[in-house]
Amino acid sequence: MLDVGGGLGAPARLLAHEHGCRVTVLDLTEAYCRAGERLTAWTGLGDRVRFRHGDALALPFEDGSFDVAWLQHSSMNVADKGRLYAELRRVLRPGGWLALSEVVAGSGEAPHFPALWAYKGM
């Protein structure tokens, strides 16, 4: 599994622990990758979760490398969605899965608080 924009790797560790899968976390911030490696070592999941510093628009992986690509609150930070999804398709094996969890605008109604991305104001 590939976790794109996985930061410190908490979801990757959970997935590896709960499902016994191997997860590669890719993040643009090298310090997050280093911190994630330390946290992962402390949990004893270093054999199942690894970290890679890199750009989601130029994924540093061979074609067809992953069965699943996962993005949680990260694609919203990428302006070139076409290039992002083309790269994800490239690294997914035929029949692979793309899983997304993203904040979206919705119907335009006022948000329900608390919301992780919204500030109600003073």
Throw out a few tags for this protein:
122 residues, 3 helices, single chain, Rossmann fold, 5-stranded parallel β-sheet
Brief overview:
By secondary structure, this protein is α/β, with parallel strands linked by helices. The protein has 3 helices and 5 strands.
Description:
There is one protein chain. By secondary structure, the chain is α/β, with parallel strands linked by helices. The chain has a single domain, classed as Vaccinia Virus protein VP39 (Rossmann fold, 3-Layer(aba) Sandwich), CATH 3.40.50.150. Helices cover 29% and strands 25% of the residues. It is built from 3 helices and 5 strands. It has a 5-stranded parallel beta sheet. The longest helix has 14 residues, at 30-43. It is globular and about 45 Å long.
